[in-house]
Amino acid sequence: MISTVINEQLGIKYPIFQGGMAWVADASLAAGVSNAGGLGIIAAMNSNGEQLRAEIRKARELTDKPFGVNIMLMSPFVQEVAQVVVEEKVPVVTTGAGNPGKYMKAWNEAGIKVIPVVPSTALAKMAERNGAFAVIAEGGESGGHVGDLTTMALVPQVVDAVSIPVIAAGGIADGRQVAAAFMLGAVGIQVGTRFLVAEECTISQEYKNKILKAKDIDTVVTGKRLGHPVRSIKNSFTREYTKAEYDSSNVSDEELEKMGLGVLRMAAREGEVSKGCVLAGQVASMVKKEQPAKEIIEELFEGAEKVLGGAMKWVK
Question: Is the torsion defined by CA of 166, 171, 176, 178 positive or negative?
Fold first, then answer.
């Protein structure tokens, strides 16, 4: 079985994280992944401190295994949630949408392993200097907020740039891609899109069906004009947003910003997958069925072991 410093240091069976997806990664999904041997992640998103505390305690009712919290550093409640993870003794914090340097000292002193998501070597080096335990190098194939570099290009460069462990994310949905991540030098993986159809995932069935019906060219990136590009499934919302995004003479940045408010919740929680935003990575078309998180993880690693075991047969 594949075992690395990630699962050994975090006390989990497999070196796999579930992505901290807003309006998706709740206590149910996090606990399901943790019970299956991975590291489940609760998305703090724009929750205030007490809302996050309630979700953490709910997860603890569902699992006795380690889980983490993803903190979006642009949240208006970031200082509250940064303190809550200390008070609740959360073992792992992943971060996104900003620099966690301001909170690193307190988190490290509390024994929290901090693992920022990074889209570049510069941010990976900064995270290492600030005391991060590891970094998640996430390529632009992923769903949600994306960077410019692909996973294939980003991961080995980050591995070469830092001495702390590197976890690969973006474009991972089967054992071949897991194996590729390890061959690039990563010692763990983070998976988001495939867990959207986990039985423990509580998003709307309409959202899950959209993933299951996706084709290989069905995702699109919007939001570049505002500096926060996002990958999602093409639908009426993305078409209207794209048209507005490239009409800067008639649509202001403020109006564009308003168009995106609440659309993810609309899709994930209300099932409105035409006018809502269906975040998903480019591997959505590789997701074929709903299944328990345990089956998903086992398939990923059994497939990876098979690929890695036969990798040398092509070398002469």
Answer: positive
